[in-house]
Write a structure and sequence with these properties.
The complex is a heterodimer of chains A (457) and B (409). Chain A has 457 residues and is α+β, with helices and mostly antiparallel strands. Helices cover 36% and strands 21% of the residues of chain A. Chain A folds into three domains: 86 residues, Uridine Diphospho-n-acetylenolpyruvylglucosamine Reductase, domain 2, CATH 3.30.43.10; 119 residues, Uridine Diphospho-n-acetylenolpyruvylglucosamine Reductase, domain 3 (2-Layer Sandwich), CATH 3.30.465; 190 residues, Vanillyl-alcohol Oxidase, Chain A, domain 3, CATH 3.40.462. Chain A contains 16 helices and 18 strands. The radius of gyration of chain A is 22 Å and the shape is globular. Chain B has 409 residues and is an alpha/beta fold. Chain B is built from 23 helices and eleven strands. In chain B, the strands form three sheets. A five-stranded mixed sheet of chain B has the order 3-5-4-6-7, with helices on both faces. In chain B, strands 9-8-10-11 form a four-stranded parallel sheet, with helices on both faces. Chain B has a two-stranded antiparallel sheet with strand order 1-2. The N and C termini of chain B lie far apart (53 Å). Classes of the chains: A alpha+beta (457), B alpha/beta (409). The interface between A and B is medium-sized, with 39 and 28 residues.
Chain lengths: 457, 409
């Protein structure tokens, strides 16, 4: 419970209706899609930068932790208020302020849902490329906090690559603005890239200018199956190595495909050890040429079958298969753990072999799903956290997966972020001085450590 | 409570944007995911029953959209239904809901209530009709009660010729019986034209869904048993519903509550397997229709897909196929045709502010279609849509059967 004085100060800012502190309501802000939970003392819904600033002033004055939240779809525990305090929720701060396709940008508030940006841009023939799996629900503020990626980020790049400018409220309550509406802007430090991916530990974004692109005229989608997982992985590195840049290249192993088929009967080949969903987009002629090139390469690597999406419905069906993977795994056991270690694409075959070995060693079923074209792996482990003996094996398996990725010049997270899930493993990929540099930056902008404390920094 | 089903919520949040209430409020506590987590906390004794918990659980349209969006295949609907029963036991309902339960739990009360209300509609001065209403709907925009209840006005068994195409048992629901007999008579006209024998069991009563939503299990059981006995006729090839919500009761809720309420499992399953909604019923037998050869002036029609038709019957596409095939209309779909209207049984008068925002969006979407008539096959949606329209650009809202019947040979 917050001190009554603090409570009243917060209510003065947002009003009674946008302030929650009853247990039943607080419980709804204690989780995201990660397994841990922690209760906040209060929840406030903000609607303007000024409100955010005033709340942070109150929080600074009383040194109360503040954890930002959008739609709570993070899978690493980033918005879980482990040190309690205030959850500052942006879901109601959701206006699209300006759409300017002539200059190729859109200005939005942090609570706007990713899919609503797409819907707003589509009539003018534009889109915003980052497409996290949660895009129908997740807010752009959350996407920025986690520097979210998605399948088509292989070609287009991740959230950070689309941020032109930002308005951010610092822990002190000061409002800072940097970047601009210009594609090129080298005025001062590139602060956008400091705040994007900071998981709410450095400041809270209250407005953002995003770069947008014209929707490509042609999209071609195909599904390729292989008899061996190794062949599948080699096809991936062969295609990427040849200089073709597909919009997306998604890999599913046999276990994943079977789990999908068990639940949604999409006609996938259950016997295939590896399945690749490949999508290319761009100018029609270029797509056709690339398509031929890809077909030649997958055949050389031993493809068993190639299915082409002939209609938009076909394409939707293939993507439905891919998108449903996480959910169907969730049906296999009470809990589902998914990580997103990433390795250089040429190391994808080795990494997959290692993941399989780790699974065998610990007697665990590990499904392998990957945005394979950029080396972003999603090993999925269905498990039961109440089964203590199994849980120990699950934790060991992930420990070894992180080590394997680090050994292969990979990294801990490609798109989910560190949050609570991976903070212990930072030393695997960063030396002591680097971690200390991050702490110094954190201390400089948030000296009292009130912003999302208890996380990776 | 099925622990396994509950625990399988991966908390991914994909249900949030499928939930019409969340989309309006943008508050986690109004989301299906939150309700599941709260139910789990309650089951594990981490959270006690409270009026606030009850309110959070009830601030839900029971539309089933979350289940459709859930990648883990969770049956939210059943979870919520069970939790509602538990909460209703511990905490009192609001007086409006209480009187609804009282009325619907005995057919004679419903009948009497409808008569009184009919009389009331005549007696209430105009200025009161402007001022007072149900939720956002002013009295004067509520439908008028039928002069005679449909089931009294129609014969119990209607046969045409000696060789009927089959036998239909027609479950009319309360709305057709007391409010919208135009739906009932149009349905009869179509069935007659198709050559079916129709039985409208006099003994049928309210399906019980409104009672179950509010935890009135005992009252619901009486209704359910009455209906099972009335509908379980060997002669019936199809049990036809003109309202997808009543249909959901027969098809899903009765089986769901078989064990809890000690119902006759064999009969319940037999009934459930025979239930069909009128839209897909006609669509599947379209070849039996012959339309008048006279030149028909087509009206531009748009359609509101009732949530239960989409989420429980999955027949919204059938319904739209049918509309596209009809020679008497030009079907002009609205972008938001499948979005909930905010009616939700009693939701529209329990949470009028949320409901208003939803229905306003619906009406905006429909205006863009430039349609002359708005079709929907759920009586609550119909009441809610018609009741919330401004008088100056009013669209007539009717059941689709109403535009089919007049043009048959």
């Amino acid at each position: 419970m917050l001190d009554i004085k603090i409570k009243n100060q917060l209510i003065e800012v947002v009003g009674q209706n946008r302030y929650l502190d009853r247990k039943e309501e607080l419980a709804c802000f204690s989780y995201d899609a990660f397994i841990k939970e922690a209760m906040p003392d209060a929840v406030v819904f903000v609607q303007t930068a000024d409100e955010v600033a005033r709340i942070l002033k109150v929080a600074s004055e009383h040194k109360v932790p503040v954890t930002g939240r959008g739609a709570g779809t993070s899978v690493c525990g980033a918005p879980i208020p482990v040190k309690n305090g205030i959850v500052l929720c942006f879901s109601k701060m959701d206006k699209i302020i300006e759409i300017n396709t002539a200059d190729r940008y859109i200005v939005v508030e942090p609570g706007v849902v990713n899919a609503d940006i797409q819907n707003a841009l589509a009539p003018s023939g534009f889109f915003y490329p980052p497409d996290p799996g949660s895009m129908n629900t997740s807010t752009i503020g959350g996407n920025i906090a986690q520097n979210a990626g998605g399948p088509r980020c292989l070609k287009y790049g991740v959230t950070m690559d689309y941020i032109l400018g930002m308005e951010v409220v610092l822990a002190s309550g000061k409002i800072v603005k940097f970047g601009s509406k210009n594609i090129k802007d080298v005025t001062g430090y590139k602060l956008c890239s400091l705040f994007c991916g900071s998981e709410g530990t450095l400041g809270l974004v209250t407005q953002v200018i995003l770069k947008v692109l014209p929707i490509p005229e042609t999209v071609k989608t195909m599904l390729v199956t292989f008899g061996k997982l190794d062949h599948t992985a080699r096809a991936v590195s062969d295609i990427i190595g040849s200089g073709i840049l597909p919009a997306a290249m998604e890999l599913m192993d046999k276990m994943t495909v079977n789990a999908i088929e068990d639940s949604s009967h999409l006609g996938l080949d259950r016997k295939a050890e590896g399945t690749l969903l490949i999508e290319i987009d761009g100018v029609k002629e270029a797509c056709e040429k690339e398509m031929d090139n890809i077909i030649e390469r997958v055949k050389k690597q031993g493809a068993l079958d190639i299915q082409y999406a002939q209609t938009p419905e076909d394409r939707e069906r293939l993507w439905t298969a891919r998108r449903s993977a996480y959910g169907v795994f969730a049906k296999l056991a009470p809990d589902i753990l998914s990580e997103d270690v990433t390795v250089p694409v040429s190391k994808v075959p080795v990494m997959i072999k290692r993941i399989n070995k780790i699974g065998e060693r610990h007697g665990l079923k590990i499904g392998v799903l990957a945005h394979a074209g950029d080396g972003n792996m999603h090993p999925l482990i269905p498990a039961d956290r109440n089964n203590k003996e199994e849980w120990v094996r699950v934790e060991k398996a992930f420990d070894e997966i992180f080590h394997a990725a680090a050994e292969l010049d990979g990294t801990l997270s490609g798109e989910h972020g560190i949050g609570l899930a991976k903070s212990d493993y930072l030393p695997l990929v960063m030396n002591k001085d680097t971690i200390e540099l991050m702490s110094r930056i954190k201390h400089a902008v948030d000296p009292d450590n009130i912003l999302n404390p208890g996380k990776f920094v | 409570m099925n622990q396994k089903t509950l625990q399988n919520c991966g908390k991914c949040g994909l249900c949030l944007n499928a939930c019409p209430v969340y989309k309006i409020l943008k508050e986690e506590q109004a989301s299906p995911r939150a309700r599941l987590q709260l139910i789990k906390a309650f089951e594990e004794d981490r959270l006690l029953s409270s009026p606030l918990l009850k309110e959070i659980i009830s601030k839900c349209l029971m539309c089933g959209s979350c289940t459709g969006a859930c990648p883990s295949g969770i049956d939210h609907y059943s979870q919520f239904m069970e939790m509602r029963q538990k909460m209703a036991k511990d905490h009192v309902e609001n007086p409006m809901v209480k009187s609804m339960i009282w009325l619907l739990s005995q057919e004679y009360r419903t009948r009497l209530g409808a008569k009184m209300a009919k009389l009331g509609q005549k007696l209430v001065p105009e200025r009161f009709k402007e001022k007072y209403g149900l939720g956002n709907i002013p009295l004067k925009r509520l439908p008028e009660f039928n002069i005679t209840p449909f089931r009294e006005a129609a014969e119990e068994t209607i046969s045409h010729g000696s060789k009927p195409a089959g036998t239909i048992v027609y479950f009319t629901g309360c709305a057709t019986n007391y409010l919208y007999d135009d739906t009932g008579f149009s349905t009869l006209r179509i069935l007659e034209h198709m050559g079916y024998r129709v039985i409208i069991p006099k003994k049928q009563t309210c399906c019980g869904i409104p009672l179950l939503f509010h935890g009135a299990q005992k009252a619901a059981k009486n209704n359910i048993v009455t209906n099972i006995n009335a509908l379980d006729l060997d002669a019936a090839d199809t049990i036809l519903v003109d309202c997808a919500t009543c249909g959901t009761a027969l098809k899903h809720e009765y089986p769901l509550f078989t064990e809890t309420l000690g119902l006759d499992k064999t009969k319940v399953e037999k009934i459930a397997s025979k239930v069909e909604d009128i839209m897909s019923f006609i669509q599947k037998r379209f070849h039996l229709l012959s339309f008048t050869k006279d030149s028909i002036e087509k009206v531009k029609a748009t359609y509101h897909i009732p949530c239960h038709l989409k989420n429980s019957f999955g027949s919204h596409e059938q319904a739209q196929t049918l509309l596209n095939r009809l020679p008497c209309i030009v079907y002009s779909p609205a972008d938001n045709a499948d979005q909930c209207c905010g009616g939700g049984g009693s939701f529209f008068y329990e949470y009028p502010e949320i409901s208003k925002q939803m229905v306003t969006k619906k009406i905006e979407g429909v205006k863009a279609t430039l349609a002359d008539i708005w079709l929907t096959d759920c009586p609550v949606c119909r009441m809610n849509l018609a009741g919330n329209m401004e008088e100056k650009n009013e669209l007539q809202v009717v059941h689709p059967v109403k535009v089919i019947a007049p043009f048959l040979n």
